[in-house]
Predict the structure.
Amino acid sequence: MPTLYVSDLDGTLLDTDRKVSPRSVSLLNEAISGGALFSVATARTPATVSTLLSGVSCRLPLIVMTGAAIWDRDSNTYLHAAFHSEQAAARLLDVYRRHRLSSFIYTLGEDNLLHIYHIGPLSRLERQFIAERIDSPFKTFHIPDNGESELPGRLDRVLLFFCMRPTAEVEPVYDEIRSFTDIRPVYYHDMYGDEIALMEVFCPEASKAAAVSRLAAIAGADRIVAYGDNVNDLPILEIADDAVAVANAVDEVKERADRSIGPNSSDAVAQDILRLMKGEK
């Protein structure tokens, strides 16, 4: 059966330097040239995905922003995007402002570019986040020095609310909005440690699982092998025929996976894909 191989990036396909190692690039390209259907499902946007996968000959569209969009690298177009309703976006803004929680707001413009806004003051970490992405041709920032953007008149093109703030600031908001039926919040800790919480808030239809299922249909795949390391990868592991955790994955991912492979520092994902692809042939 045609198989779609889909991997998370950070902590999974990317090594400890947050890059796709030269060996992984070589192994993946060998698998792809042999017919493997390979893509990624990541929280990152096209701006960083394009750079990270520059050496990988991906022939399929890529799942970005935790499934909020499917992006075709060859044409630089969004094949699918899941937007918040205008009412849900406005309600979230009210909650964030009441709790004084700063957040980035990602919208997709008619020009096929991401337009990014911000509410609340900017932290040092947020300023660094912007500085590392400000020159990207894939997105435009509308964030003044004080951090409080003038928001667009229409909120029905909002893909994502994203905050990276101290855990004590984020938890109360997450506890309030997690029961809302018109949004889907994802709350976790990542590379910044337990002191900084990351929270992504999408519309209910936006998920890695929904995007992977859609991509499998596009690719004509009847089977899915998925790789992950963190809780935001659980949706794709749950729908996969073969759910794979890397050795450095959090315990919850290892417990829910069908099997485990080596750590992200050992090219384990690329090796596994090539091994499986050769076995299929």
